[in-house]
Amino acid sequence: MTSRADIERMLRDTYAARQRGDLEAIAGIFAPDARFQMAGSNASPVATLVEGAEQYRPLLAGMIKTFEILEHTIVSMLIDGSKAAVQWRARMRSTVTGETVETDLFDLVEIEDGRIKSFLEFCDTALAARMMMG
Fold first, then answer.
1. pTM check: above 0.70
2. Environment class of 134 (CB within 10 Å of its CB; exposed 0-12, middle 13-18, buried 19+)
3. pLDDT tens digits along 71-106
4. Ramachandran sector of residue 52 (left: φ over 0; alpha: ψ -120 to 50; beta: rest)
5. Which long-range contacts (CB under 8 A, 24 or more apart) does 71-78 make?
6. What is the DSSP string of 49-85?
7. Contact 90, 105 (CB under 8 A)
8. Engineered SS bond to 125: which of 38, 44, 82, 112, CB 3.0-4.6 Å?
């Protein structure tokens, strides 16, 4: 079983890797069969659900390429057993439109065998879609 301190360190490492744009570091933290979901309505081009490295690696690569995280702050992190809830705030820049925004996000994460097994992210999907398409 992974300790609370290990989970907190893993999550902080994950967010730091995302801010650096380090896909390999992120992929090393996710389990090979992990589930990654961006919550939202089916009408949003941002809402998606993928399972396994063959699906989440290209999705994460696209997110890293499109959304540059300029500043990142963890507002709160709650850990209960193998589950965590993280509220975070970021200043992001779209590499497509050049637009810079500040936004809040919320992630629900499940850990299994020391790796991320499930990652569910809630964000402003309308804002993200605008930043993707201009």
1. yes
2. exposed
3. 999 999 999 999 999 999 999 999 998 999 999 999
4. left
5. 72/15, 72/16, 72/18, 72/19, 74/12, 74/15, 75/104, 77/8, 77/11
6. EEESHHHHHHHHHHHHHHEEEEEEEEEEEEEETTEEE
7. yes
8. 44
Measuring CA to CA, which residue among 75, 90, 82, 79 is closest to residue 124?
A: 90
Calpha distance 105→74 (Å, rounded): 10
* CB neighbours of residue 112 within 10 Å: 14
> How far is it, in rounded angstroms, from Cα 52 to Cα 99?
31
- Quick count: other Cβ atoms within 10 Å of Cβ 20? 12
